[in-house]
């Protein structure tokens, strides 16, 4: 792995995971629907963002994001090498991992990326054309899309499955798209506390922007699947089995020249920043930039991304709910 050190740590098996509280179908049975309403509102906000400015930001930053998150695409490529077959890449974005997997599988590759954002899918198709890849792309909500059943032997995702309002149902939908015994591999973020780089901007800006949204682990969004016990339970509910979850730390880098554009576009600050009155906006940028200083090493910004690699198998006899 060229630009990053991947440190595989502990493998958490199903039996050792404790089941935590989660905002899914079970929450519906609890008296009062506040958690359910909040989760669905958050999921709708995420979908709206990906269909709008979130996708624009991602496409504009595609060059350095490709390099920054390359270690995690490599993990999906490894799964494809171990389990070649028909591949579905969920929340494929601009198609970096879909195209990488298709490249690994060679001339016979049958790889499809699905994404809720038309902009992302457009950029993914452009990428596939540019790189002469056979990868194909579908613009749809992976949680509810009527995929052909049993059409995939491997379902993968790099940071594309944390946004669902009802994750168990969404994983059930992906289970139906998968053939019996098909493999699942995805990468998601561990919690906010373990990813301080990712929350630097909002922590620094909060005193200056009291209206800044406060996010927490488990909400649909970047840290939506931070709790491995909950993730395992959601997968089991969705008809997946043999769940294995292990932490992976990767050192990620981006050019120092892109740092301002990075924190101005992404996270919770990105959408809020353009609407701030000018004197405040400039102060926020200055304050946030200073907060990132510990991560700046010459012309490079460097941080550790703390993630989970999740593996599972489509249960032969449980078609997902
Ligand atoms: C953090 S980006 C990751 C993109 C890509 N996998 C990558 O690593 O470059 C998350 C992607 O998931 C997509 N997404 C979010 N919710 C989705 C859903 N319900 N169905 C399909 N795609 C979704 C977004 O549009 C976005 O492209």
TrEMBL record:
Residues 87-177 form the Methyltransferase domain. InterPro entries: Methyltransf_25, SAM-dependent_MTases_sf. It comes from the Bacteria. Pfam families: Methyltransf_25. GO terms for biological process: methylation. GO terms for molecular function: methyltransferase activity. Keywords: Methyltransferase, S-adenosyl-L-methionine, Transferase. Residues 23-42 are annotated as: Disordered. This is Class I SAM-dependent methyltransferase.
